[in-house]
Amino acid sequence: MAREKGGNVERGEQGRREAGPFRCRPVTKKGEPVRELYRRIAARYDLLAHLYYLVGFRGRAYRKMAVRDLNLVRGDTVIDIGCGTGLCFSYLQQRVGPEGRIIGVDLSGDMLEKAGERVQKSGWSNVELVERDAAEFDFPGGVAGVVSVFSLRSIDRYEELMRKAALAITPGGRFVVLDLKLPDRSRSWVKRLFLTFAKPFGVGMELAGFRPWEPGQVYFEDTRITPLYFGFAYIFSGRAPTRPERSSRPDCGR
Ligand SMILES: C[S@@+](CC[C@H](N)C(=O)[O-])C[C@H]1O[C@@H](n2cnc3c(N)ncnc32)[C@H](O)[C@@H]1O
Predict the structure, then answer these.
(1) How confident is the model at residue 244 (pLDDT cuts 50, 70, 90)?
(2) Does 14 map to a domain?
(3) 101 phi and psi, to 5 degrees?
(4) Which domain holds residue 225?
(5) Does 6 reside within a domain?
(6) How many domains does the chain divide into?
(7) Residue 201 pLDDT > 80, yes or no?
(8) Measured in angstroms, how far is the CA atom of residue 149 from the centroid of ligand 1?
(9) Residues with CB under 6 A from ligand 1
(10) Among 95, 98, 143, which residue's Cα sits nearest to residue 119?
(11) Residue 11 included in any domain
């Protein structure tokens, strides 16, 4: 899995940001493939996710903020990468309405089964679920926004996914990531405590090397990073380029 190249986003000749090489190591729990992890926890995922409220982690509010950052309007098509059980679907529905389209992509059939139950229960007829590695997903045309909530860190080729998303999203549409991170300045015991809480989701020290905003700042324009939960989470948001050449930079050695 490790494909770390190290390095940072650098300024190009005309002051524009040039591609990496970036850190391209996805964050997965050592020894347990992502699919297995989510097979094991799919049935109690929603409960687990909501339990984090007990330690002040406002998952619902953060999801709402991420969806708001997509700037969607009624009738839009939006892709939810690593949609899991569909915890973002209701917020997306509020934005795109029944005339819009929501496509949920996930590697785990078990998580998608739960998402399917949610869709059926809510009577939504505009949601499609796709069981696939997100890096291999072929984006359809006319996508107004792409969101990835607590999933990008476990996607092996996330940088490739970001590059493809930048090409697929209609110019002006937005790409939004809500995920976890380790703040640079936090004490090590605080980080360890945080990682203990995040362990059920396969999160480990590898999180320190996960910096998707670096390729994000190359592939997207008007980028913003909003720190959340004392810097242990963030929302990255960027606008799809109006100049296509910006999103065709070289990637991580592939
Ligand atoms: C922590 S859950 C987040 C689910 C949901 N987005 C939410 O807000 O609760 C991470 C999800 O990402 C999915 N995932 C991980 N790697 C993936 C990949 N390569 N392609 C697609 N989905 C992936 C997992 O199966 C899981 O459902």
Answers:
(1) low
(2) no
(3) -140, 135
(4) 21-246
(5) no
(6) 1
(7) no
(8) 8
(9) 34, 38, 49, 63, 82-84, 87-88, 105-108, 111, 133-135, 149-151, 154-156, 201
(10) 98
(11) no
Can you read off the two tokens belonging to residue 55?
A: 């330690």
Q: 100 phi and psi, to 5 degrees?
A: -85, -175
* Residue 133 Cα: closest atom of ligand 1: 20
Tokens of 240: 């799809």
The span from the CA of 32 to the CA of 113, in Å, is: 21
CATH number at residue 207: 3.40.50.150
What is the structure's pLDDT at 203? 72
pLDDT at 243 (0 to 100): 63
Beta pairing partners, 143: 169
Residue 125 maps to a domain:
yes
Most confident segment among 6-20, 102-116, 184-198, 240-254: 102-116
Neighbours of 129 (CB within 10 A): 20
pLDDT digits (tens, 9 = 90+) for 76-98: 999 999 999 999 999 999 999 99
Q: Of all protein residues, whose CA lies closest to atom 16 belonging to ligand 1?
A: 155
